[in-house]
Amino acid sequence: QITNELDINDGYLSNIVKRKHSICRKRAYKYLRSAKSKMLELRLALERGDIEVLRRLIKISELSREMKIPYSTLRYRLLVKKEPKMVQELIIRARKRVERLEKTINELDSIINGNIRFLSVKEVKVLDNQDSEWVYDITVEPYHLFVSHGLILHNTVSITKAGIVATLNARASILAAANPAYGRYIPQRTIAENIDLPVTILSRFDLIFIITDRPQEEEDKALAQHVVGLHGGRIEDIYRDIIPPTLLKKYIAYARKYLHPRLTREAEEKLVQFYVDMRKRSEDPNSPIAITPRQLEALIRLAEAHAKMALKSEVTADDAEAAIELMLHFLQSVGMDVETKTIDIDIVMTGKPLSQREKFIKLMEILKQLSDENKGKPIRVETLIERAEKEGLERAFVEKALKHLKNEGEIYEPLPGFIKKT
């Protein structure tokens, strides 16, 4: 109905309604954006009194029927003579319709962007069980039932994020490697900006190590000698004390299958003390969070893994110390805010350190102020940047933040060089 009234119906929605099919959220959002863009055009036309635009919303034939004036007469008085009375009547009716459509569009916006989903139970049947004590799977295709979820039935998790399509064992250990998004790791950027993976995946790893190629004379010389020696056949001595791969696999398999070490009191105290000490750094409301319970769980897993490596049945203080050392290295290399030089675990958890979040909040406040000053009209991007620079925000940060907000659907660009909140 809205697309018909705004004259933006391409036939797709009509076909969907006719067939009694549903529509995906992405496609609905596309039409919603088109409707909002059209509404902005109509609002500007109302302010200018542009009857050429408004008569596309209120058709002359419709106006003729309601005012009981012949079509040709009304058309002449409105478009040729531009009688103030006729023009005013058109503007009044157009304004009422715009307000009604805006209300409906806002309701649709809250539904489309809301946190809701629908799953329909098509039919329920009670079947007599005469031959089986239990069933392995319950699936009715093509409908998705909660009892057929892979995590419940198969202990697997399906991932379709950031171009990754995979089914993972829910109890698996994952070792992953990733190349920098820009070809080379940039220390001035966060881990989330350097690696093209969403933070929802990055934050699930217990440890993240950054391996960079830095010129160092001694190491470069040793590496070059090794590579040259490999081709010269002079490196047999290097491999004398290395454990054969088959034996190492058996060693790891044995440790994982038969060893389940428990934390000793000393190990518990070390882990708790480290966690509490790190949390103390965040007692100031303006300080970033250095560590969360997720990292504490990771510490326990690391300490247990270190004990398994030594085929021990108990996790000792030495194992806890090794886990803490690994965690500190991880936090200092990956979780360090480059601006404040403090550890901020939100760099990994959310992709934004506290310093960046504060800037982002300030930018959103400026955006709201300008929106209120313009009474909901589009905001000129340059005006926003100038205001932000006066508040101490860099142009590069503002441009990057606006791009992020566009991608997230928080703002859109109704006209080149102008933005508006959705």
Could you characterize the architecture of this molecule?
With 422 residues, this protein is mainly alpha-helical. The chain folds into four domains: 2-112, no CATH class; 135-171, no CATH class; 217-349, Rossmann fold, CATH 3.40.50; 354-421, Orthogonal Bundle (Arc Repressor Mutant, subunit A). The chain has 19 helices and seven strands. The protein has a three-stranded antiparallel β-sheet. Strands 1-2 form a two-stranded antiparallel ribbon. Strand 1 and strand 2 form a beta hairpin. Helix 13 (265-280) packs parallel to helix 15.
N- to C-terminal separation?
21 Å
Largest sheet: 3 strands, antiparallel
How many E-type strands? 7
The H-level CATH homologous superfamily of the largest domain, spelled out, is: P-loop containing nucleotide triphosphate hydrolases
Shape: elongated
The helix-strand sequence is HHHHHHHHEEHHHHEHHEHHHEHHEE
The CATH topology name of the largest domain reads: Rossmann fold
Query: Which secondary-structure class do the elements indicate?
Result: mainly alpha
Helix run count: 19
Percent range of helical residues:
40-55%
Number of structural domains:
4
User: Could you report the average pLDDT, rounded to the nearest whole number?
Assistant: 80
Q: CATH architecture of the largest domain, please?
A: 3-Layer(aba) Sandwich
Strand content: 5-15%
The gyration radius over C-alpha positions equals 32 Å
- Order of strands, main sheet, comes to 5-7-6
The first-level CATH class of the largest domain is given as: Alpha Beta
| Poorly predicted tracts of residues | 136-148
